[in-house]
C-alpha cells in the first residue's frame, strides 16, 4: 500500500480502490492477493566536467563588474568635488549622477552578458 508523503499514513492504491468498490457492490468477501507496486530504480545524474565546472559568469563578466563599480565610485567622487553650497553645482547635480548612472548601466550589461564557452 502506498504511503502519504506528508503524514506517512497508508493511502489505498488504484487496485485496492477498485476491489473495495466491487466488494461493497457485491457484498461478498473475496480473498485478495497482495498487490505489488512497481518500483523504478533511481539512476544518479552523470557528472560531466562541464556541468560541475559551469560558472554563472565568465572572466569578461567579472572585468565588466569591476569596471562598473569603479565608474560608480568615480561618480560619487565627482559629486564630492563640487564647491557649491550643499553640492548644488554642476558637478553635484549633473555630471556626478550621470557618471554613477553610466556605472550602473555597465553593471547591468556585465550581469546579462553571456559568458563565452
What does this structure look like?
This protein is mainly alpha-helical. The chain has 2 domains: 1-37, no CATH class; 54-112. The protein is 53% helix and 3% strand. The chain has 4 helices and 2 strands. It has helices spanning 14-26, 49-52, 59-80, 90-112; strands at residues 2-3, 10-11. It has a two-stranded antiparallel ribbon. Helix 3 packs antiparallel against helix 4 (90-112). The radius of gyration is 33 Å and the shape is elongated. 3% of the residues are buried.
Which labels suit this protein?
117 residues; mainly alpha; 2 domains; two-stranded antiparallel ribbon; 53% helix; 3% strand; elongated
Q: Which sheet architecture does the biggest sheet show?
A: 2 strands, antiparallel
How many helices? The count is 4
Counted up, domains total 2
Query: How many strand elements?
Result: 2
State which percent range the strand residues make up.
Answer: under 5%
Adjacency order of strands in the biggest sheet: 1-2
**SS-based class:** mainly alpha
Layout of helices and strands:
Elements: E1 2-3, E2 10-11, H1 14-26, H2 49-52, H3 59-80, H4 90-112
Antiparallel strand pairs: 1-2
Helix pairs in contact: 3-4
Brief rundown of the structure:
It is built from 4 helices and 2 strands, in the order ββαααα. The chain has 117 residues and is mainly alpha-helical.
